Amino acid sequence: MTEKIHEALNKAKSMLESKDLDAHAVHLLMEHVTGKSGATLLADLREPLTPKQQTDFYNKTEQLLTGKPVQHIIGTEQFYGLSFEVNKNVLIPRPETEELVFGVLERCRDLFPEDGRVADIGTGSGAIAIAIKKEWPDAFVVATDISEPALEVAKRNAKHNDAKIEFRLGNITEPIEHEKWDVIISNPPYIAMEESKEMSRTVLEFEPHTALFADDDGLYFYKKLAKSLPPLMNKPALIAVEIGYQQGKAVSDLFQKAFPKDRVSVRKDLNGKDRMIFCEIRE
Length: 283
What we know:
The protein is α/β, with parallel strands linked by helices. The chain folds into two domains: 5-74, Helicase, Ruva Protein, domain 3 (Orthogonal Bundle), CATH 1.10.8.10; 79-281, 3-Layer(aba) Sandwich (Rossmann fold). The chain has helices spanning 5-17, 25-34, 38-43, 51-64, 70-74, 95-111, 127-135, 148-160, 201-206, 220-228, 248-258, and strands at residues 76-79, 82-85, 117-121, 140-145, 166-169, 181-186, 191-192, 213-214, 233-242, 263-268, 274-281. The strands form three sheets. It has a seven-stranded mixed sheet, sandwiched between helices. Strands 1-2 form a two-stranded antiparallel sheet. Strands 7-8 form a two-stranded parallel ribbon. Strand 10 and strand 11 (274-281) form a beta hairpin. The chain starts with a helix and ends with a strand.
């Protein structure tokens, strides 16, 4: 006799909680194993699992107990209403980054009524570039990364989501030099090395450190961007970057110095933490 869905969920939650791991992950696992999502899963909590589903669920729960992210176990993450392949070569897209995409699109509607030239620097899974292209089909979108394995994931995600993106391999602004851009977006590595001791095992052991950590108290990439972007921008133009919640002043100062006549603003995420910098370059 197999367990009912709610019984298996409760058992798995207890196992994860005993190891101080995120118990919410078992719901995503159950959705994956049963093919039922959201309200359907809730309505069927008293339904029994098939023997195959039960075996599969507990095998995958064992992986969760090692600290492995649920997104790596099921192979996907949702971002901006789209599904993205994720693995050890790319950062798992975060909800905060959806707010960066929303903020960019909102501003671009005023700045660029029709098409625009957009570059996503350090694209990882391609989430930002692909979400922008899906919401703004007339934009010409380029996505760059220094990691070839990351770009391979991003290319598959673009194909899966039917988004025409030009991918370029290279470091920071190197792949987009000698061209002018309307919009530059980046969610660069911004965690200071010394902060690693406060981070969860799930992130530290399974996500790429090159996409997480930066030298110079986490400011290394912002300094490079602030220095190299001024000659690359059209007028008007928009620069948008995601930041660590304690970096608002430092990063906004860097961009204000680089673009002294333009408007640089810090925006908070839904949790009330500084999370985005927008630099609006006017004509």
